[in-house]
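Researcher: Good morning. I'm working through a list of sequences from a screen, and I'd like to move beyond sequence-only analysis. For each chain I'm collecting a predicted structure so we can compare shapes side by side. This is the next one on the list. No need for commentary yet; just the structure.
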Amino acid sequence: MISNAADLFDTAESLGELSSDSVALLDGLQTEINAALATGAQKQVARVILVTLDLDNSDSMKYKTPGASQSNWEIAADGHDLIFSSLAGSKAASTILAHSTFLIPTNGNNGIFFPFKDLVLPGHSAKTPNPNFTTMPKKVTMESHTPLCDGMIRVLGSVQAQSTVYTQDGSDVFTITVFLTDGGNNSGNAKPADVKTLVTDLRRQERHKIYLGGIDDGYTDYKAFGQECGLDDDCVRKLPNDPSAIRAWLQQVSQSAVAGSEAADVNAFSQVKL
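Model: Good morning. Structure tokens for this chain:
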């Protein structure tokens, strides 16, 4: 079994999953992507669901709406836990690999909160739950910039690599990736056109769903940004900078993720919407 980024991208290209342009984009991210891959014994199932949550850890996420009890980061952290908890209660829980990331790498963490791992442990059931995901802290290291495109390429590259670990052996793989940010791309090397190169390859496979929630910062046009990145219009939402609106979107994402994880086939998966 191939399980390192460089070889996985070569395999993905040979399988027709990635174009040479996408492989070129990802080649310089092998260290970060290798750190995101699951370790230990490979899950032995015919069908695998990969669910990745990426939260913007820029300073502006500390913003607290006047009168609100939580900052946007604290709301996002609760939403992170809600989504994984909901999935742990789904029928597909034992087939899911969970992965959690920060938009901005800090302290040598490669942008990873936890790498791909089983969402639940053996013996998990509704009566005796045994979840395996880590809850998101209410305080994390934050930075003063938003390298949104860099982060999207790194995270989606990790999703593709982990997907190829299974598709190379003939497993059926579906992925759900969620980005939550409160600002547009204002730093880093990658541009929306670079993201679109990779997103185009992923969407062509019809097995990857990519959601983007953008908290209103007063000037970012998230719909336009999503289009520049090649995202499905239906999967991009501009969210009012209001706690109830952010929580409502995270709840919708949670419900959509559960529906996607339980989809019977490619057609059913493609029909899942927010």
